[in-house]
Structure formats: structure tokens, C-alpha cells
Amino acid sequence: xxxIQPEITRRGFMKGGALALVGTSAIPSFLERSVMAEATTAAxxxxxxxxxxxxxxxxxxxxVVPYREKNYYAMRPSIxxxxxxxxxxxxxxxxxxxxxxxxxxxxxxxxAMVHASGSPDTTRSHFDAQDYMESGTPGVKITEDGWLxxxxxxxxxxxxASAFRAVALGTQVPRTLQGKVPAIAVSNLADFxxxxxxxxxxxxxxxxxxxxxxxxxxxxxxxGQETFEAxxxxxxxxxxxxxxxxxxxxxxxxxxxxxxxVAQLLKANLGVEAAFSEVGGWDTHQNQGNTSGQLAxxxxxxxxTIAAFWTDIGxxxxxxxxxTMSEFGRTARQNGTGGTDHGHANVMFVLGGQVKGGKVYGxxxxxxxxxxxxxxxxxxxxxxxxxxxxxxxKSLGSxxxxxxxxxxxxxxxxxxxxx
Length: 419
Hints:
The N terminus is likely disordered. The protein is built from 13 helices and 13 strands. Strand 4 and strand 5 form a beta hairpin. The strands form two sheets. Strands 1, 2, 6, 7, 8, 9, 10, 11, 12 and 13 form a ten-stranded mixed sheet that branches. Strands 3-5-4 form a three-stranded antiparallel sheet. The chain is α/β, with parallel strands linked by helices. It has one domain.
């Protein structure tokens, strides 16, 4: 077997392998930390936060439908969800029928929604809006790190930290988790086999071990080896043989597999505090559909995956909070091609054992023509940072919200009291 050069391994492996590493320099910062690194309040309390990003700008008005708004139907003659088709939530709002798997979680008080939420920045650029929401600094393009990384920085610490403290499912660490706190991206747990462990050994895992074994760098031979031991702990759970809880079937999709692996990581007790996943396909400019079609198919996968995750987590549900976000909503009026264009306010979901669910939170701005943002969009009445601030404050114990959302004036006194 050809020996892999350490430098090539570090760059290639960290960019696109089954396990990607990120820190404050070319060498992952967690490799530079002392073995006596400190653990956090969230780890001590076994609290975990899962963040889901709906990339592409989901249509919040057809997700949590304001079916009592007459103008909703006037503006969406062919894509509106009819009043007798919505899954009623509170007499005013109703879920899209493709999201039936989430309705029991709402009825049981575990699931809440925040409508008319979003960014105060008015950009309609996917790239800029996603960047602002992931950095947590709307309108500021020079922010170097992500809000979730800063939320981990803002925790109280005591004890020893895990190399798996911050994990993303994917080929690279997302903007949301970039920063001083080390984060790991895992694209496929089953692909990561430990060298010398039999026929399942993969080139990726051999490369990862070679990065340490063949390097003369003292940093790589320090806590890097400790991190590799943590990966061995993960592998000991035999990811390829993982069986979800009885009766749980995840959709056989990229997103379904992603959240299945998040559940696996959380249940493996590896010290995960923050996990990130994402799902695309929300940019419905054409042929959006109503109770069936493009959006309905995406919502069914999205909802069935989250419902499967919730059941799979089982008894640990009381320690887990899941929050969803999308860069902006879509226009209140449908366009000429049966779709919707880039809008403003949207809807966020918050799920968890401590969530005061069974309620749609936020101030509803209305859909009358004069109430629309710029005459075309649902107006934002809840800054997304207030929602994220509350879930990080309550689940991760991130007390310094000025650090998490600089300039955001996120005040616990203004929390919606979702948790």
C-alpha cells in the first residue's frame, strides 16, 4: 500500500473525507488543546442542541398556513392549502397536510412554531441571507465565525471536553459552526472504519490514522491521538450495524440518513452538545404545488425525518432541543409559473422535551395588502436571533448573548418563553 504523505492527508482529508475538522488555523485547533481541556455546563447536564437549516428559502405560508386570512387565498389561487385540508393547530393556523407526522408532537406539547420570524436584513440573496443567519450578524459581512460556535464559547466550563462537542453531518463544517471551538463534520459514519480492524477498513480511516502515525509533528502526536481514540469509541458502536429504536423508519434520503446519524451520535454518549444538519430543495420558483407536488414532497420528507428522529431519541428527548431555520420566506402572492419568489418572514420550529409546545408563537402581522413588507412579503415581527438566543440560553447554558449575537441586543427579558 502506498504511504500517504501527512500534508496531503491533512488537506485532502479535512476538505472532503468522511471526517472533516475545523479550527482557528490550518491544523485543527482541538489538536493544540491540552488533554486537561475543560468540559461545559451543557455536557455536565447532558443537554444537546440540534440545528436544522432549510436551504433555499422555505415557504412558511404554506408550511404553517394562516387559513383564516382571506387574503391568503386571494393571493394564492392555485397553490393555497384549502381550509378543509389543513391540519388545524389553533383555529387560525394549520399545518400543511404533508406534515401529518409532526401533528402528534404538537398535540403532545413537544413542538412549537414561531411564525413571522426572520432576519431584519432585507436582502433577497440566498448567499447573503444564509451567511447572515449562520453568522448571526445580519447585514455584517466581515464576521468570521458562526453563532453556534460562539454559543459554545459562551458556556460555563468545568471538567473535560469531548472532541465530539460540535458535530455537523456533511462533507465540511458549516458556517454556523466555524470558529474557536473545534468542530467536526462527518459525512458518513459507516465509511469511517479503523485501520487494522478487518475487511471494513477504509482508505479514509487509514488516511486519518496515517496523519498521526507518519507525522513528526508533536501537535499531531499530542491530543490528536486522543481524538483518534474518540473516533475509535465511535467506531466501537459499529455504525454500519446501527438499528434505530423499534418501529422507527427514517426516509431513505440524504436528509433522512443525516438525521439518523445525528441520533446515533447523540445516543452514543460521546459528549455531543451541538449538532447541525441541513436540507435543500426549498427554492420553489416554479410549480410549487399545493397539497401535492414539489413542496409537499419536501415537507413530507422533512416531517417524517424529524418525527423518526424524535421517536428514535426515546428517553433522552428531555435533554434535546431541535430548532429549524431558513434564510427567508417567500412572496405572499404566487407568481405566474405557479411558484413563489424570494420573500421575507418565515416560520421556525422548536422541538424538545422541555419545549412548551402546542402553540404558535410570535406576533402575527397580517396578510392584508397594507400589512405586507414592501407590498409583497410577510413582515418579520420576531428576530430569528431571539429564538436562537433562547434555545442556546436554555439548552446550552450560553449566558453571554452579546458574544453569541454581537450587536443583536438579544435580551432574556424578551424571550418568547418557548422553553
